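Working notes for the structural subgroup meeting. M.R. asked for a predicted model of this chain before we commit to crystallization trials. I am recording the input and output together here so anyone reviewing the notebook later can reproduce the run.

Input as submitted:
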Amino acid sequence: MSTVPACPVCTLTNTYHDGEQFVCADCGHEWSAIAVTEESDERIVKDSNGNVLQDGDAVVLIKDLKVKGSSTTLKQGTKVKSIRIVGGDHEVDCRMDGGSFMLKACYLKKV
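Returned structure, recorded in token form:
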């Protein structure tokens, strides 16, 4: 499976890899493949207080969170151990008593 990113100019996914460049077939924009890989390696995720989160950290929920599609609510003050940082809008992957959840870092505080 290819990991070619969407075009940063037109945001369409009709892009391809050409040597050390990515090229958008729709708008013709070209950008460096090296810059994209360096940018993804340096992803910094911060909690609600601005502390940097890393894989394996323990965090606490700072507010009650309703689980979408369920009647479950994750309660404020719940401690979560061994988080994992992932890409996307919900940056933190974790396991709790109720199952496995993807959480936004802005609702977490590092312990």
